[in-house]
Protein backbone atom coordinates (compact mmCIF):
# COMPACT_ATOMS: atom_id res chain seq x y z
CA UNK A 1 0.00 0.00 0.00
CA UNK A 2 2.87 2.35 0.80
CA UNK A 3 4.45 1.54 -2.55
CA UNK A 4 1.26 2.50 -4.41
CA UNK A 5 1.04 5.77 -2.52
CA UNK A 6 4.61 6.60 -3.39
CA UNK A 7 3.92 5.89 -7.07
CA UNK A 8 0.83 8.05 -7.00
CA UNK A 9 2.81 10.84 -5.35
CA UNK A 10 5.49 10.68 -8.03
CA UNK A 11 2.89 10.80 -10.79
CA UNK A 12 1.20 13.76 -9.12
CA UNK A 13 4.48 15.62 -8.86
CA UNK A 14 5.20 14.88 -12.51
CA UNK A 15 1.85 16.30 -13.56
CA UNK A 16 2.44 19.40 -11.44
CA UNK A 17 5.85 19.95 -13.03
CA UNK A 18 4.40 19.56 -16.53
CA UNK A 19 1.60 21.96 -15.70
CA UNK A 20 4.12 24.46 -14.35
CA UNK A 21 6.16 24.18 -17.52
CA UNK A 22 3.05 24.75 -19.63
CA UNK A 23 2.24 27.86 -17.62
CA UNK A 24 5.78 29.13 -18.01
CA UNK A 25 5.69 28.51 -21.77
CA UNK A 26 2.31 30.26 -21.98
CA UNK A 27 3.58 33.22 -20.00
CA UNK A 28 6.69 33.45 -22.17
CA UNK A 29 4.59 33.25 -25.31
CA UNK A 30 2.27 35.95 -24.06
CA UNK A 31 5.18 38.12 -23.03
CA UNK A 32 6.99 37.78 -26.34
CA UNK A 33 3.74 38.05 -28.23
CA UNK A 34 2.81 41.24 -26.41
CA UNK A 35 6.30 42.60 -26.91
CA UNK A 36 6.17 41.77 -30.60
CA UNK A 37 2.80 43.40 -30.93
CA UNK A 38 4.14 46.54 -29.27
CA UNK A 39 7.11 46.55 -31.64
CA UNK A 40 4.84 46.09 -34.66
CA UNK A 41 2.58 48.84 -33.39
CA UNK A 42 5.51 51.20 -32.90
CA UNK A 43 6.82 50.45 -36.37
CA UNK A 44 3.36 51.07 -37.82
CA UNK A 45 3.02 54.37 -35.94
CA UNK A 46 6.44 55.56 -37.08
CA UNK A 47 5.73 54.52 -40.66
CA UNK A 48 2.36 56.28 -40.62
CA UNK A 49 3.95 59.40 -39.18
CA UNK A 50 6.67 59.42 -41.83
CA UNK A 51 4.21 58.84 -44.67
CA UNK A 52 1.85 61.49 -43.32
CA UNK A 53 4.70 63.91 -42.77
CA UNK A 54 5.90 63.40 -46.33
CA UNK A 55 2.39 63.70 -47.73
CA UNK A 56 1.74 66.97 -45.89
CA UNK A 57 5.15 68.59 -46.34
CA UNK A 58 6.77 67.13 -49.45
CA UNK A 59 6.44 68.90 -52.79
CA UNK A 60 6.79 65.65 -54.74
CA UNK A 61 3.26 66.11 -56.13
CA UNK A 62 4.04 69.43 -57.77
CA UNK A 63 3.25 69.26 -61.50
CA UNK A 64 5.74 71.00 -63.79
CA UNK A 65 5.64 72.32 -67.35
CA UNK A 66 7.99 74.09 -69.77
CA UNK A 67 6.26 77.21 -71.05
CA UNK A 68 8.33 79.98 -72.60
CA UNK A 69 7.65 83.57 -71.58
CA UNK A 70 6.92 86.76 -73.54
CA UNK A 71 4.07 85.37 -75.67
CA UNK A 72 1.38 88.03 -75.74
CA UNK A 73 -2.11 87.96 -77.20
CA UNK A 74 -5.15 90.19 -76.72
CA UNK A 75 -7.66 87.34 -77.14
CA UNK A 76 -8.88 84.56 -74.88
CA UNK A 77 -6.53 81.58 -74.61
CA UNK A 78 -7.50 77.91 -74.26
CA UNK A 79 -5.08 76.59 -71.67
CA UNK A 80 -4.05 72.98 -71.15
CA UNK A 81 -4.24 73.18 -67.35
CA UNK A 82 -7.03 74.42 -65.10
CA UNK A 83 -6.03 76.92 -63.89
CA UNK A 84 -3.12 77.69 -66.23
CA UNK A 85 0.48 77.82 -65.10
CA UNK A 86 2.08 79.46 -68.13
CA UNK A 87 1.74 80.06 -71.85
CA UNK A 88 0.31 82.88 -73.93
CA UNK A 89 -1.14 85.75 -71.95
CA UNK A 90 -2.53 89.26 -72.19
CA UNK A 91 -0.08 92.18 -72.48
CA UNK A 92 -1.53 93.61 -69.25
CA UNK A 93 -0.71 91.75 -66.05
CA UNK A 94 -3.06 91.34 -63.10
CA UNK A 95 -2.20 93.51 -60.12
CA UNK A 96 -1.24 91.26 -57.24
CA UNK A 97 -3.76 91.17 -54.40
CA UNK A 98 -6.91 89.51 -53.12
CA UNK A 99 -9.97 89.32 -55.38
CA UNK A 100 -13.49 88.38 -54.35
CA UNK A 101 -14.51 87.44 -57.91
CA UNK A 102 -12.83 85.38 -60.68
CA UNK A 103 -10.14 87.12 -62.70
CA UNK A 104 -9.01 86.58 -66.28
CA UNK A 105 -6.60 83.69 -66.82
CA UNK A 106 -4.69 85.72 -69.36
CA UNK A 107 -3.96 88.59 -66.93
CA UNK A 108 -3.12 86.24 -64.05
CA UNK A 109 -0.67 84.26 -66.19
CA UNK A 110 1.16 87.50 -67.00
CA UNK A 111 1.43 88.21 -63.25
CA UNK A 112 2.95 84.74 -62.77
CA UNK A 113 5.43 85.57 -65.51
CA UNK A 114 6.55 88.40 -63.21
CA UNK A 115 7.02 85.97 -60.30
CA UNK A 116 3.60 85.85 -58.61
CA UNK A 117 2.02 82.77 -57.02
CA UNK A 118 -1.68 82.51 -57.88
CA UNK A 119 -3.85 80.72 -55.31
CA UNK A 120 -7.28 79.71 -56.58
CA UNK A 121 -10.09 78.05 -54.64
CA UNK A 122 -13.55 76.67 -55.24
CA UNK A 123 -16.26 79.27 -54.63
CA UNK A 124 -17.90 76.99 -52.00
CA UNK A 125 -14.75 76.67 -49.88
CA UNK A 126 -15.63 77.27 -46.19
CA UNK A 127 -15.04 80.82 -45.00
CA UNK A 128 -12.52 79.72 -42.37
CA UNK A 129 -10.34 78.21 -45.09
CA UNK A 130 -10.75 81.25 -47.32
CA UNK A 131 -9.55 83.38 -44.40
CA UNK A 132 -6.48 81.16 -44.16
CA UNK A 133 -5.79 81.71 -47.85
CA UNK A 134 -6.31 85.46 -47.48
CA UNK A 135 -3.64 85.53 -44.79
CA UNK A 136 -1.19 83.68 -47.03
CA UNK A 137 -2.01 85.96 -49.98
CA UNK A 138 -1.55 89.19 -48.04
CA UNK A 139 2.15 89.30 -48.95
CA UNK A 140 3.85 90.71 -52.04
CA UNK A 141 3.69 88.85 -55.36
CA UNK A 142 0.58 86.92 -54.36
CA UNK A 143 -2.75 86.55 -56.18
CA UNK A 144 -5.90 85.07 -54.66
CA UNK A 145 -9.24 84.55 -56.38
CA UNK A 146 -12.15 82.07 -56.54
CA UNK A 147 -12.17 79.80 -59.58
CA UNK A 148 -15.32 77.93 -60.69
CA UNK A 149 -14.71 74.39 -61.94
CA UNK A 150 -11.43 73.95 -60.09
CA UNK A 151 -10.18 70.29 -60.13
CA UNK A 152 -9.48 70.38 -56.36
CA UNK A 153 -10.52 72.57 -53.45
CA UNK A 154 -7.38 74.69 -53.65
CA UNK A 155 -4.73 75.03 -56.37
CA UNK A 156 -1.44 76.91 -56.05
CA UNK A 157 0.17 77.94 -59.34
CA UNK A 158 3.36 79.68 -60.37
CA UNK A 159 5.06 79.87 -63.75
CA UNK A 160 5.57 76.22 -64.83
CA UNK A 161 4.60 74.79 -61.41
CA UNK A 162 1.29 73.73 -59.83
CA UNK A 163 0.08 71.92 -56.71
CA UNK A 164 -3.48 70.65 -56.13
CA UNK A 165 -4.68 70.54 -52.52
CA UNK A 166 -7.80 69.46 -50.67
CA UNK A 167 -7.46 71.92 -47.81
CA UNK A 168 -6.27 75.46 -47.26
CA UNK A 169 -4.52 74.17 -44.15
CA UNK A 170 -2.29 71.75 -46.04
CA UNK A 171 1.30 72.23 -44.85
CA UNK A 172 2.57 72.04 -48.41
CA UNK A 173 0.95 75.34 -49.42
CA UNK A 174 3.31 77.69 -47.54
CA UNK A 175 6.24 75.54 -48.68
CA UNK A 176 5.10 75.90 -52.31
CA UNK A 177 4.88 79.68 -51.91
CA UNK A 178 8.31 79.86 -50.31
CA UNK A 179 9.92 77.81 -53.07
CA UNK A 180 8.22 79.09 -56.21
CA UNK A 181 7.34 82.75 -55.58
CA UNK A 182 9.89 84.71 -57.61
CA UNK A 183 11.50 81.34 -58.21
CA UNK A 184 14.30 80.49 -60.63
CA UNK A 185 11.85 79.62 -63.45
CA UNK A 186 10.32 83.12 -63.42
CA UNK A 187 10.73 84.47 -67.00
CA UNK A 188 10.68 88.15 -65.95
CA UNK A 189 12.13 88.00 -62.46
CA UNK A 190 11.96 91.37 -60.73
CA UNK A 191 9.19 92.77 -62.95
CA UNK A 192 6.41 94.65 -61.19
CA UNK A 193 3.29 93.04 -59.80
CA UNK A 194 1.43 96.36 -59.70
CA UNK A 195 0.65 98.98 -62.31
CA UNK A 196 -1.29 96.49 -64.45
CA UNK A 197 -5.03 95.88 -64.27
CA UNK A 198 -7.20 95.32 -61.21
CA UNK A 199 -10.40 94.30 -62.94
CA UNK A 200 -12.24 90.98 -62.67
CA UNK A 201 -13.53 88.82 -65.50
CA UNK A 202 -17.04 90.21 -65.07
CA UNK A 203 -15.75 93.77 -65.31
CA UNK A 204 -13.40 93.35 -68.26
CA UNK A 205 -13.66 89.96 -70.01
CA UNK A 206 -10.97 89.00 -72.52
CA UNK A 207 -12.54 88.85 -76.02
CA UNK A 208 -12.60 85.64 -78.03
CA UNK A 209 -11.35 87.44 -81.11
CA UNK A 210 -9.26 90.55 -81.56
CA UNK A 211 -11.34 93.75 -81.83
CA UNK A 212 -11.69 94.89 -85.44
CA UNK A 213 -10.74 98.42 -86.46
CA UNK A 214 -13.51 101.00 -86.40
CA UNK A 215 -14.73 101.32 -90.04
CA UNK A 216 -15.27 105.07 -89.57
CA UNK A 217 -11.57 105.42 -88.80
CA UNK A 218 -10.44 103.54 -91.93
CA UNK A 219 -8.88 105.80 -94.61
CA UNK A 220 -10.71 106.37 -97.89
CA UNK A 221 -8.93 104.40 -100.58
CA UNK A 222 -9.70 107.08 -103.18
CA UNK A 223 -8.23 109.87 -101.08
CA UNK A 224 -4.63 110.87 -100.71
CA UNK A 225 -2.63 109.12 -97.95
CA UNK A 226 -3.51 110.52 -94.57
CA UNK A 227 0.08 111.50 -93.86
CA UNK A 228 0.38 113.66 -97.02
CA UNK A 229 0.29 117.41 -96.10
CA UNK A 230 -2.44 119.47 -97.75
CA UNK A 231 0.13 122.03 -99.02
CA UNK A 232 1.61 119.39 -101.33
CA UNK A 233 -1.33 119.84 -103.75
CA UNK A 234 -0.72 122.54 -106.41
CA UNK A 235 -2.82 125.73 -106.14
CA UNK A 236 -5.37 126.30 -108.91
CA UNK A 237 -6.84 129.66 -107.89
CA UNK A 238 -3.73 131.87 -107.94
CA UNK A 239 -4.50 135.41 -109.27
CA UNK A 240 -3.48 136.20 -112.86
CA UNK A 241 -1.18 138.97 -111.66
CA UNK A 242 1.06 136.34 -110.10
CA UNK A 243 2.10 135.11 -113.57
CA UNK A 244 4.90 137.04 -115.37
CA UNK A 245 3.69 139.40 -118.16
CA UNK A 246 5.88 137.71 -120.71
CA UNK A 247 3.90 134.48 -120.14
CA UNK A 248 0.70 136.06 -121.46
CA UNK A 249 -0.09 135.48 -125.18
CA UNK A 250 0.38 138.52 -127.49
CA UNK A 251 -2.79 140.32 -128.79
CA UNK A 252 -4.00 139.33 -132.20
CA UNK A 253 -2.27 141.15 -135.02
CA UNK A 254 0.52 142.54 -132.84
CA UNK A 255 3.95 141.01 -133.26
CA UNK A 256 5.53 139.57 -130.22
CA UNK A 257 8.38 141.66 -128.80
| Sheet with most strands: strand arrangement | 1-6-5-3-4-2
CATH architecture of the domain at 63-180: 3-Layer(aba) Sandwich
Cα distance, first to last residue? 192 Å
Please write the CATH class name of the domain at 63-180. Answer: Alpha Beta
Q: What class would the helix/strand composition place it in?
A: alpha/beta
Q: Count all strands and give the number.
A: 6
Q: How many helical elements?
A: 4
Low-confidence segments: 213-257
Q: Oligomer, anyone?
A: single chain
CATH topology of the domain at 63-180: Glutaredoxin
Please write the string of helix (H) and strand (E) elements. Answer: HEEHEHEEEH
Largest sheet composition: 6 strands, mixed
Q: Tell me the radius of gyration.
A: 43 Å
Strand residues, percent: 5-15%
**Which of globular, elongated, flat, extended, rod-shaped describes the shape?**
rod-shaped
Average pLDDT across residues? 81
Q: Helix proportion of residues, in percent?
A: 25-40%
How would you describe the overall organization of this protein?
The chain is α/β, with parallel strands linked by helices and 257 residues long. Among the domains are: 48 residues; 118 residues, Glutaredoxin (3-Layer(aba) Sandwich), CATH 3.40.30. Strands 1-6-5-3-4-2 form a six-stranded mixed beta sheet. β5 and β6 form a beta hairpin. The radius of gyration is 43 Å and the shape is rod-shaped. The protein starts with a helix and ends in a 77-residue tail after the last helix.
Amino acid sequence: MTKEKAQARREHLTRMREEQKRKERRAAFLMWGAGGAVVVLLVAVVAFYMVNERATNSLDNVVTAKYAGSQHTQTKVTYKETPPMGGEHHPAWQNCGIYEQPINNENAVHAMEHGAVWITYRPDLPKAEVDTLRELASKEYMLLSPYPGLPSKVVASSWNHQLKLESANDGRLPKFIQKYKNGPDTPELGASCSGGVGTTTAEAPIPDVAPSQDPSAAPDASAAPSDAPATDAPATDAPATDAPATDAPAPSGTPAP
